[in-house]
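name: query_chain
kind: protein
chains: 1
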Amino acid sequence: MKLSMKIAVLSFTMLSAVAAQALAQEKLRVADSLPVGHFFAETGTKFWMSEVTRLSGMPIQFEYYPAEQLGKAKDLLALTQSGVVDVGYVVPSYASDKMPLSAAAELPGGFSTSCQASLAYWKLSRNEGILAKQEYASNGVRLMFVIVLPPYQIFSGKKIIDTYKNLEGMKLRTAGGAMDATVRSFAAVPVRMSAPEVYESLSRGTIDGMLFPFGSLLSYDLAGISKYGTSDENFGSAVLTYMMSEARFKRLPIKIQQAMDEAGEATTRRACEIADKDVVTDIEKIRQKGVTFVALSASDKKILSDSMQVVGAKWAQGLDQRGKPGTAVLKAFQSAVKEN
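structure:
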């Protein structure tokens, strides 16, 4: 073999070895603010990491940092955009100044199951969807997977909430965004805070109660310090996402990109199906921890429904006036919900 050919073969071999080594050493930092054992981390996050590895057939090393180990919940969007975090857990309402349009999925009465809303949000946030173009592209991020939680309920630390009047003036935790308007619609006082802050605030009496989903009430250990709750109302919801910066995504091998896209939809479907299935058992677990579930009268339900009906329209109009397509996004979300 000629010397030049030997050198070429050797160079190719060395380059191949370097490339393989670089791929083997590829690490992706996944960070969230969810407590260890949170149902979405178990049914969503861990499943997604496993599926990406399986589908890609490539040696990916995920480093998972739960419970705000790499940053506070409110900072995870910025940390993901900057690359400090490769895949970050982002609740759009915690960053409502950056992602206001996502609140279309958080408005009261917009859907009855997690899967209706989750699959609608997934559709609008991917490819040519309106949220993909208007919200994700402008922030330089890409949706990995999502769950829109089952309709939120009201839980209180001490005060009985069996009538509409008892809700007036209560300081209720919200995630921000559209949830603030929902709380104001029945004359309560919204107090914005991330989920990890709620336990201490409710224990100290800084808030009287919170809008929260059943599964998260258990995951954050709030059932033990809550006294009363509703079980069949619809006070809106929250969107929980995992994102990656578009720049980071594009640096990944094509096989991993394709695996992430496929795993994202599978994870979204799996997580919402489990969340919907668990509602009944979650209610029973919460009841066993001492929470008394109350039922509002038909007249109170109508008052609440009427007051919350205008929230969506006002939310959309407010965004329209700021030059953002609030009405268009709301209509697109409502249409997508009907398909599921």
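note: The mean pLDDT is 93.
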